[in-house]
Specification:
316 residues, mainly alpha, Na+/H+ antiporter like fold, 80% helix
């Protein structure tokens, strides 16, 4: 019972917000344009404020867990490479294959993972997430651009441009926020109260508004478009990959917040920004969007079950 209550208290609040967004749109209180604008606001402003706050307030250098970071980095790279090697064996359409590869490895760790870690472990969870997120966000961005370029339509003649890729990473609001937070922490800057409170206000809006926006963007009819392939991708994304990476992490001795982060990192749904990037780069943005929506919905169940199992076996 204790593990079930722990899981409910950790996971359920996030999905109540998502369901609220869906209901608000269905009742006509807000429309999908509002949800799209709210999602853009969160990506460019509110979530970066949240990341800045977590990095600035955490003692990342003193308590840096190189072993955990290395494991997460290697596991993300392995997932990307295996997805790029295996999916072409089953999906012959290169554009659709690129969408499958992307949906397999890129997760919504910032939007879903960071709040979930905070719900489970409080300040310790936020600290562990802030320690790993900078590295995986960079890998996800590099992997996404590389994947959509490699599997782009032949008529586009797309070529991987290292300089453009570097610019894409440097301009990413999440990366900028993390680097600024780290610089502020290392420099020893102490911000006046009004600045700290303003940052807290912006950061505090990020999770509720972002999850309401995700719920508002959910379209059940769209999710039915490629139901069989969506189901396979969601199984791989939400069950197979987190199962393998979490069990391996447990065997290697990770416990507590560190093991929980591994599960949350690899068990989160597909990143919400993927569909927009897929559209710009000529990939199958419709499939990418459908997988994002379906995995966001199903992750309410898989995250709950996963957290409950980890708690039951006293691993977290």
């Amino acid at each position: 019972m204790e593990s079930i209550l722990f899981s409910l208290n950790s996971v359920l609040p996030l999905f109540v917000l998502g369901i609220s967004g869906y209901v608000l749109v269905q009742r006509g209180i807000v429309d999908r344009r509002f949800a799209d604008q709210a999602s853009n606001l969160c990506f460019k402003l509110l979530i970066p404020f949240s990341l800045f706050r977590e990095v600035y307030s955490a003692s990342l250098i003193e308590q840096f867990n190189a072993r955990l970071v290395l494991y997460c980095v290697l596991a993300v790279l392995a997932t990307q490479l295996l997805a790029a090697a295996i999916w072409p064996l089953f999906i012959k359409d290169r554009v659709r294959c690129g969408a499958c590869v992307h949906s397999t490895f890129r997760t919504n760790i910032v939007l879903m993972g960071v709040p979930l870690m905070s719900n489970m472990f409080g300040a310790e969870g936020a600290f562990v997430a802030a320690m790993v997120v900078p590295f995986v966000v960079i890998l996800f961005n590099i992997g996404a651009v590389t994947t959509f370029t490699v599997f782009a339509p032949k008529e586009m003649g797309a070529k991987l441009d290292p300089l453009a890729l570097l610019k894409n990473i440097i301009r990413n609001p999440f990366i900028i926020a993390i680097l600024l937070g780290l610089a502020a922490q290392l420099s020893g800057i102490v911000f006046p109260g009004f600045v700290t409170k303003s940052v807290d206000y912006f950061a505090g809006m990020s999770t509720p508004l972002a999850l309401i926006a995700v719920g508002g963007q959910f379209d059940p009819q769209q999710a039915k478009g490629n139901l069989k392939l969506n189901g396979v991708l969601c199984f791989v994304r939400l069950v197979l990959i987190p199962g393998i990476t979490t069990v391996l992490a447990a065997v290697l001795g990770f416990r507590g917040a560190g093991l929980a982060l591994v599960f949350v990192l690899f068990g989160s749904p597909t990143a919400v920004s993927g569909a927009a990037l897929a559209k710009v780069m000529g990939s199958d943005y419709q499939l990418t969007g459908e997988v994002t929506l379906m995995s966001s919905l199903l992750s309410a169940v898989t995250l709950f079950i996963g957290v409950s199992l980890l708690k039951t076996f006293a691993l977290i």
